[in-house]
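Homework help thread (please don't just give me the answer)

Our assignment gives two proteins as sequence + structure token strings and asks us to describe the second one. The first is just a warm-up. Here they are:
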Amino acid sequence: MSVHEREGRSEQGFAKPASTFLELFTPKLITILRERYGLSHFRSDLLAGLTVAIVALPLSMAIAIASGASPAQGLYTAIIGGFLVSALGGSRFQIGGPAGAFIVLVASTVQLHGMEGLFLATIMSGILLMLAGYLQLGSYIKFIPYPVTIGFTAGIAVIIFASQVKDLLGLTLSGPEPGALLEKLPVIWQALPTWDLPTVIVAFVTIAIIASLKIYRPHWPGMLFAIVITSIAVTILKLPLSTIGTAFGGIPNTLPMPSLPEVSFAKVGALLPVALSFTLLGSIESLLSAVVADGMTGRRHRSNCELVAQGVANIASGLFGGICVTGTIARTATNVRAGAHGPVAGILHSVFLLLFIVLAAPVASYIPLASLAGVLAIVAWNMIEKHAIALLLRASRGDAAVLMATLLLTIFRDLMEAIVVGFALGSVLFIHRMSKTTAVSTHRPWVEDDQPDKVDGSRLPYDESIASNPDVLIYRISGVLFFGAAASVGSVLDNISDSCKLLVVDFTEVPFIDSTGANTLEGLAHKGRQRELQVVFTGLPEELREKLRSYGISEPLVAFAGTIDEALQQHGASTV
């Protein structure tokens, strides 16, 4: 099925004619409005938008702080990016904003290139995302193997938690905190004697509130409750803890004016690998989130339209001083559960966050950093899909190897390296498994297990002379004849006795032949000619026949027949 055909399915999953370019990139907001969007739909979206905003408020600030940015930048990202993702995206329910998966990449970018470098890399990533969407690469990004996504997500979670240990325990470091985990752990260990009891209590009370509400009141916004309760407690008790106000001077009550960071060829070249990393991770995260929403609702998103929207959102976020924007799985799932009807809910979630900045920004100054560290500790724990990891470790050694390689490389090396290596290992594993499904078997005509061939229903007679005739050899190939299986198939076909005069190869159960498989068959045909062996291919549909002819496999080098019986009759081997 082509990309157009996949995208051309209706939201209910029924096939329809291939979509035009305009239809592929029509935002779901337009689709919703065409469906006679009414007041009842708006009420549903209003409630869902408020619910998501309550969840997104503490998360956006916490993720930004952990990324080396200010809490205000996290809110700018959720407001600007979230609005554009919902307004222009190809998913009804996608919620855009800062995501925990980007913390490691964003923090390292800020450390190496500064905040201006982060803005430029975000804008460049937006351009690349738009390009990927318009080139219709969205359907291929979803081919990342499942063990790879589970592995790098768990690895990111470990790094996020490690980055919050300092604020969870209130440690005083002798110098700047290293970014790499292996360098960070000795520094944290040396600073353990400086732990602060009030900070530890506030952090773990935050975690306890969130965990308890998830069990006993799962529909309540646990993170917001935890932030509000601990902030009030710290203020009333006058605990000497670092807060957003003391660390960042509070949050502005207006959005900044857009501005373009300094651009030069040298900076673009230096930031291109970073932008590519943002693009790849953003594509995977966003499309996974959209797929999750599809699974929860039975709808179908437009993947390439979604990538274009993510690109526009990242460009705008970089211009307004925000960080990377992507589709967020937890907030998108919350949006669906809250009863959202369409993208208006995501737009309203951004409006509510903007109202918070305008009306209640001074209140954010009282939020303890220990509380936000507790929120991120919960986020890191939820990112690790424990059940999926246990399942993959038990499933097979190959899946376990891909998972562990991706996980360990993410933690101790680099996220992009982990994804590339994991994808390569997953591809090799898939090729190996596919090669095992391709087999060559000897076919004996007219045995008793065959189906009736005559019009009156009687069976053709079993011809012992044909079944054991050394001059006639019949092989049946089943499975995909591709480069992973070509060698094993070729070795079987090469073991043909010199007395054989007619070789029939049946392709009825072969759905696809690649160039390596065609080259193997061409070699077989030329060997047959040298030995005066007549080679007949049967069961090939016209499409595969034309493909073989394009590789030089045609008459008189080989002969073609519809069935094995026809091949035997045409070459005088049939006794029927």
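The one we have to describe:
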Amino acid sequence: SGFYGRPWSMDQRKVLFQWMQHWGLNTYLYGPKDDLKHRLLWREVYSPEEEGQLRTLIVEAQSRGLRFVYALSPGQDIVFSSSCDLTLLKRKLRQVSDLGCQAFAILFDDIDHSMCQADSEAFTSFAHAQVTVTNEIYRFLGNPLFIFYCGSLCSPSVSKSPYLQTVGEDLLPNITVIWTGSKVISRKLSLESLAEVESVLQRPPLIWDNLHANDYDSRRLFLGPFKGREPQLKNHLRGLLLNPNCEFEANYIPLHTLGTNNHYRTSMQGVAVFGCQCIAVCPPDEECEYCPDRALSAALKDWMEELNQPLQAAWSTCGWRSGQKAQVRGLCGGKGLLSESQVRLLVGLHYLPHEHGPSAQKLLQDLTWLKTNCQLVSTNSKKVDEWRGRASRFLSLCEDIAQLHCSVVGGNNRAVLYDLYPYVWDLRNTALVAKAFICWLGCGKTTGADQLGVESEPWAFKGGVSGEVQMLLPVGSSSELFTHPPPLFPTTRLYNIRPYHSKDKVLYRMVRQLHLRTQGGPESSAAHPDVIGDRCLGPCLALCPEYSFILEDELGVCGCVLGILDVRSFAKRCQASWIPAMRDKYPPKMNGTHPNTQDLIQLMEEDQGEYPDSLLYHFPSQLRLDALPELVDISISRTLLTALLTALKANGSQGVFCEVQPTDRQRLEFLTKLGFLEILRGEARSREGVVLGRLL
């Protein structure tokens, strides 16, 4: 494969060859950057076992009418003037040639452009060194199909680049040169720019198209169609390489639509997959009738069938790929089917680098508008109905994203699950925070203290749709809140995060159960079941309910997070109203079963604590997080906490802290991963807890 990341397995490449044969693609280039003997250890020959695997792959490709191109990347440390290095390079390529390979590529991309002393003395320029070695290897191998990747050394411009001029003049004319386009990731390919490149290189270039490559951003995936390459380019191209997503299953639509594009070019010399990158060579005269939208619809129809097959991630057991559908439902563990609307949603949310699909566009447009116009909620303007209508549609789309996550996790095709799961999981969690934020705005809670975040130009940050939604939230710059790895064991459980409302009495029961589990022993508050809730939750729910969020799943409430915007004013309000109310509710020694009122009141006063002014200056807000231990997906607790931090930040908080028992290692580790640092120890005061804080 030509990308950075875990190389595809041999079985996956064989499946790819089936796709290519079926879709009319005809050349495959093997060049995975993380194959050590392709790049880092390029001097080392393959072992007998590795030879056997590579020979099998070459034979498999040739049996399906595909040209197999072997690529080597020696540029990181080759000494061009070294006869030893040249001998080792010839030995390595001769070994592959003896396995049956008849086409080769030398890739000099992503390397240091400076030369060592020996090369500087032997060659007039970096280009001269590369071209000299490439020409000699080409002749040594007997003038096979040969591809040279020169990178993008085009300073100060294409037409005035000494590097490109040397390549054009000195590289043997039958050697093809790869070009990335005007940019590393080009939205469109300009006819004028390609004509200029052709003139300088003295041959039509072979485009290395990174349209679907995602190895530069671990949160992005590109499932959209091949597009933005007009048919008029054909007279100035020798071909086009489509660099793929790292995840094998994510490339079905990109390759399918490239094949559709090829279908309309009947006299093509070939289409290739470059490990997987695809070369599409255009005919000289025929006009292209390719339509990306129609091609996408056709690909979606075929992919639907693929997605809903009971396929394991262990490819070697899945004989149905060769035409015999194996019955592996019991092995897969999935049971659900993805609907067409869900597949369209999946593609629309993970479309192309410079273009979102319709669903993603709607998600971002509505979130931006709702955030910008949140002041309408607290007015009597007729526009409040418009705000609530758009909010309802936005929340519905967020729910569809959550359901999509569950359907992918619960689907039959486990191979697709393992490739796509991190992306649908990431977007599910980000959408949950955004949904909770809009629900919170809909309650009229915001003061607009920080103007609800900073506007950013599209594509100025990483993360795709998830990253853009994140940046629209007040805590969007805090990447550690959004970029944790997904859990090892995916769950299909549906979650919802929403603001607290007065009917949520179940919180008292949940916290009471948690207290009994952690403290052990018989329940001592049978006469007054509200005692634990009144102590742990009561002050926040009574005095600042607008900073309380509820986590619920299909079985009901399973967690909550409570916040205090300003601890100083909150403590004064507690003394003025909450503590007196508790004295009235719990008279001394009631029924002889309840702790003395003074003891209870003392505990409540201690819970408020007396925090140093230096702490409250930087961390004016406080939080409390509770979740049932049955909550398997720990990431959802992170998402719940992020919803609260979003609300606190939106109303001007610059920092938040929480108190944790030093023995609660799990909670300490959880908060530390979210950017909380220890700012106060119990020995500095009369309490035992460790105080952790983070700036917002």
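TA reply:
I won't write it for you, but here's a hint about the kind of observation we're looking for: The chain has three domains: 10-303, 321-448, 496-695.
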